[in-house]
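One such shown below:
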Amino acid sequence: MGATKTQNHASTNDAHTKKEKKHIEEIRTMLSYPEIICIYMAFCIVLVFGLIREWSSKLGVLAGVKVNPFSAPKGYASLFKELEYFWLRRFYQRCRDCFERPIASCAGTWIDVMDRTSPDENTSYTYKGTTSRILNLGSYNYLGFAETSGPVIDSVAESIKKYGVCSGSPSVEAGRCDVVEELERTIAAYVGKPAAIVFGMGYATNSTTIPSICGGRGTLIISDTLNHNSIVAGARDSGAIIRTFKHNDTRDLERVLCAAIIEGQPRTHRQWKKIVIIVEGIYSMEGEICALPQIVALKKKYKAYLYVDEAHSIGALGANGRGVCEHWGIDPADVDILMGTFTKAFGSVGGYIAAEQAYIDYMRRTSYAQIYCSSMSAPCAQQALAALNVISKTEDGKRRIHQLHENSNYFRTKLMELGLCVFGDNDSPVVPMMLFHLAKISAVSRLLLERGLAVVVVGFPVTPMVLSRVRFCISAGHTREDIDYAISKISEVGDIALLKYDMYKAE
């Protein structure tokens, strides 16, 4: 029966892959070559004017333009990367008000954003001393645990009284309180693995674990091209050979696997000691769910290991929130290492690795974060543990998961009906809406803020030049009225910024 379920999911995924490819082709046809040329020309114009101002500042031609404070003394090589400073000064500085928005409240469904005047190139913000109540569509508060009241917060307050807020190294007794140990046991049982280990930082979970398990010669890492930077950092730090495959393309993954096995290691052509495939459950910039059934099939066929990053999928996917394995009906035993974080669905900090007991024991003794870093503090562990217990043991937890799926699918469908270009899969709480043009990044962000919406905008160099986007993050805490309010305001901005297309009307 389990095999039949997996086959059904696999056939469903094949159909989805075909639909996704058709969707991508439609998006490509939406941008004509003149439009693409205009996007690059706009970038070049900003680049040219930035270079002129940079050269003028060095020559002292333009008054009021500050000289680069990172310029190297005469006769010295530059200590800093001049290109990065140039980018910050001449590009990011022009739109930094879209990213640096301090809030004066809990980062829940609605937030209080501090009012201020926008700075010019050489001045700081001026704060007005007031705040505006804004609908939050930018935080990873997937299950709505960013709350100021309720049993979860009450348990955290009690843990502060009992344990304090400090923590020590995980390798000593001071860093191993009973709350952290209980969290490890609970998360392991929740995701269906024999054991788990908890880290104090989500980014460090990947960047320090991958070198631990993939270090040494003769290891090959095969990574999705759109994997998170923490995976990239960990893979590079491991010293292993790295190959990539096209995003969520299992045919290309098989091609890379076949080539690796046939050709062997560089120069010597010896057989690889181990091959590790690394993917994500939900890709945070695309809102797409990984094709896990096909990846597991390839993993078994070619005897490779599989590492799945569930930072965005744990708590958000599956009927019980158990992640991408539950979503596809895959046995967790078919995935060698399940990684996840507590920063999204659980409203806390840190991350975890769930695997066989032998793997966990090895990581506890070799991972940098388990030796040199601080462990998760008891109150943060209590927040994650309490949220996890609500999700897995109460009706309120089931309600939150169901509400998240309902909100995400409703929001995505409504945007598509408006003719807005949307990426991602059903049930994914990450909903990217394409802007394409660089100039629309700051314009759309400011227009939405004026209408009471806080969003995240993303562009080059995080995305390709022509694929700028808004990334909406939906929460179970959003009511249907909140979603409808957001859709109406997004529709207004879509009309102003010319973001609506006819691609969905035929469907």
In short: Residues 1-17 have pLDDT under 50 and may be disordered. Residues 237 and 354 are 21 Å apart (CA to CA).
